[in-house]
Amino acid sequence: MPTTAPQPGRFPPSLLPALVCGLALALRLPGLTWGLPDPTHLFSYHPDEYHSLRGLLSLVLAGDLNPHFFNYGSLYLYLVIVAVLLLHPGAALSAWGEQILTGQAGPLLRAWTLDARLVSVLTSVLTVYAVYLLGRRLMDHGGGLSSALLLAVVPLAVLLAHYGTVEATQALFITLSLYFCVLLFDRPGGRVLVWAGACAGLAASAKYNGGLVLVAPLLAAVLAPEPEGRRRTVVGVAGRIAVVLGSAALAFALTSPYTFLAWGEAQRDLAFEIRHMRLGEGLPLVADPSGFSYHLRHLLAPGLGPALLLAMAGAGWVVYRRERRWYPLLLFAVLWLITISLAKVRYPRYELALLPPLVLLAVAPLGFLRRGRRAWGIALGICLVAALGWSVQVSRGLQGPRPQDLAREHLLRVTQPGQSVGYVNDPWFADPPVDYLNGGTVLRSLPLWRGYLRPEREAVVSGLGMPTGPAGETPKAFVTTDFAVGEGLRAGDAATVEFMSRLAAQYGPGNPEAAFGGPPLSLVPWPLGPDWRYPWPQVLIWQMRGTR
User: Fold this and answer.
1) Taking the chain, what is the end-to-end CA distance rounded to the nearest angstrom?
2) Are 242 and 174 contained in the same domain?
3) How do residues 233-251 score in pLDDT, each as one tens digit?
4) Domain end: 380, 398, 416, which one?
5) CB pairs under 8 A, 24+ apart, for 158-161?
6) Residue 517 — φ and ψ, nearest 5°?
7) Residues 318 and 460 occupy one common structural domain
8) How do residues 366-391 score in pLDDT, each as one tens digit?
9) Is 110 within the bounds of a domain?
10) Are residues 232 and 348 in the same domain?
């Protein structure tokens, strides 16, 4: 059958998804080097990125693929290893190991952290394309394109693509699993079931709770029609379920093998994570007692934007119209929201896996409505503009100077060598790095990294007590950040409030002497969670009178 050649001057529709992915890439690449290790600090300004390199460090220093870190699955760690080996071909592992052991790891950690972030960028852009495929199958080309465009500009997805952490990779495999669930309604058969289960296993291998997406292929296995010529039986449905579970288990085992091969280590880390999620983090839990309120307001502004309201209405339309092909996706979204809301540990990054279902649900009524279709399209356009505005602010803000660097320069101007600087905790990601080893209490105590201690000023750690230097003197300057005292102040914690009052009295009028940071986002009416503040911590410098 002859094909119709595209008319001269008309843009080929098949290129539109590529343009949407190009837009996603254009928002995710600028600012990718924010807070990377440099001559002033050994570790990046993101507290979790070091863990993305654990598998690589094990390979370089111990010569094995056991990451010795099982708080998450191992898939993302191995993807980072692959990225490093591909982007730095010909480099000798022994040479890398020698650099680390002889105090020269800074350039390596900078390059490797950037490689880890590039993995997040790639998986984030691939998720945009996967949403296009999913939306095209659930709706049509226009529905898929609109959904992908919305995800391309969603601020939370743009922000987290700049982090070398597991969430973007997990979201990709969750989305792929949902895609194969929908495909099963059109192509019922074992191969599609295997892929749906395998992608769910890979999502769990990136981060264990990604295994929750298994509910989607399991429901699809029950709801989808039988292949042509076959009769539905209980045994047949049970076989489908077994295929999904088996392929998920196999995919997880192949990509996180040491979870089983080093079960003693894995059991320790898993027990910690379970206990952590059950008990929470103290003051942040007091400051935000409702998990549902926390996640819904972060999604509403600035995570997804007002498109969240359209997605909720879209979910109602799907249920009202009994669109069974949407049920696996909807079930996953509801269960995921419930799970992250009930957990006692709360971070906006937990919402990333919700974004693909939500953008699809926000677009869905365009395919259902007869009246009001134009009004819905206008509302969706407004949501796109709002999301793009916040994402541009994120991207531009990541290209600016870091508050920690500005605060460090200020401290070095107002203090002299030999004078001390006070901190609430060991200098870490949010603090101005007056010591090259900025890894916080844990990394600063490890023998491997202690060789990187290079203080420019003596750091005095006070906790919530009054700071006292090595000779009993008060430090000439003191640093507080929103990560050190912010949650305590929001929760009305008596110890934190008293500490800040005593600090103000001790350092006197005119303090804090300088302030840096704060997220560069407008029209966000509530305090933002940690993921939104990592690049822009609020840093206050308190200075003793008479030292200015």
Assistant:
1) 83
2) yes
3) 898 899 999 999 999 999 9
4) 398
5) 158/27, 158/28, 158/391, 158/394, 158/395, 159/394, 159/531, 159/532, 160/120, 160/124, 160/349, 160/352, 160/531, 161/28, 161/117, 161/120, 161/121, 161/124, 161/125
6) 95, -165
7) no
8) 888 888 889 999 999 999 999 999 99
9) no
10) yes
